[in-house]
């Protein structure tokens, strides 16, 4: 357990930051996070935001600005949505066809154009594209998933997170929960974002390489597992999605064992 970035600032040249739960929860940025970002800038550290978001990194610029985080405080943003779009663009999913049963947020259809797909009903679809949970719960998707499984459709998910924090401090269901339900049915799922190793390779290229990097995040299943997979250090933020299960160092160690991961450091908030 450390008191803040000041304890480890001289050890790392690159800081790979999660967005939700570290910098903000969908609303205004945490004041401590803005102070921490300025501290990293003052110490000439590379800062990249690696987010499990179905949106593009360029879309995140606006969200971060709206939260109070200025563009000069980080090098760039790379998302699980960028990872997915990259795989469509490079032809990885060509064999799946182009007619997608599309699960989305706020009826946003832009990702279909980005990936060269058209929307289809479940009986006509050649794949499932899972980018949101407009219907509110996984149960609301089970009928469609059952037909998709019967038709042997493969599911591509843009955001592997199961849940995310809201500005009010509650947890909301994320696309990864739908994908996990489909996988448990026996359906084939193509995962993107953290903890997939390919995303960390893309990240390293994006920032021009690093000597010693550390990933900062509040999800043991995604942020810390991803860091472990990529062979880099990690800083676990205990005030995020696992907060209710954490009371002391022993609880952190037990939770880490449950997820079969190990964080090098932990801290209550992302702070200087």
From TrEMBL:
SUPFAM superfamilies: HAD-like. The keyword Hydrolase applies. Pfam families: Hydrolase_6 (PF13344), Hydrolase_like (PF13242). Gene3D superfamilies: HAD superfamily/HAD-like (3.40.50.1000). GO terms for molecular function: hydrolase activity. Keywords: Hydrolase. This is TIGR01459 family HAD-type hydrolase. It comes from Psychromonas aquatilis. The lineage of its organism: Bacteria, Pseudomonadati, Pseudomonadota, Gammaproteobacteria, Alteromonadales.
């Amino acid at each position: 357990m450390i008191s803040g970035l000041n304890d480890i600032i001289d050890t790392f040249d690159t800081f790979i930051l999660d967005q939700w739960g570290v910098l903000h929860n969908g609303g205004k940025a945490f004041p401590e996070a803005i102070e921490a970002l300025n501290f990293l800038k003052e110490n000439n550290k590379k800062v990249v935001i690696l987010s499990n978001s179905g949106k593009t990194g360029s879309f995140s610029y606006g969200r971060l600005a709206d939260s109070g985080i200025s563009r000069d405080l980080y090098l760039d943003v790379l998302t699980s949505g960028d990872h997915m779009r990259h795989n469509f663009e490079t032809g990885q999913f060509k064999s799946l066809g182009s007619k997608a049963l599309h699960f989305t947020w706020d009826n946003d259809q832009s990702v279909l154009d980005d990936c060269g797909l058209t929307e289809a009903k479940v009986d006509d679809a050649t794949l499932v594209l899972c980018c949101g949970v407009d219907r509110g719960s996984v149960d609301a998707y089970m009928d469609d998933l059952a037909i998709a499984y019967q038709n042997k459709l493969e599911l591509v998910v843009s955001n592997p997170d199961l849940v995310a924090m809201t500005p009010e401090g509650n947890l909301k269901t994320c696309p990864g929960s739908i994908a996990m339900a489909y996988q448990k049915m026996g359906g084939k799922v193509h995962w993107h974002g953290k903890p997939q190793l390919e995303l960390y390779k893309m990240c390293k290229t994006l920032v021009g390489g690093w000597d010693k990097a550390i990933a900062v995040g509040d999800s043991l299943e995604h942020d810390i597992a991803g860091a472990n997979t990529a062979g880099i250090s990690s800083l676990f933020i205990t005030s995020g999605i696992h907060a209710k299960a954490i009371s002391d160092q022993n609880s952190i160690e037990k939770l880490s064992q449950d997820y079969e991961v190990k964080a090098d450091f932990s801290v209550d908030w992302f702070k200087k």
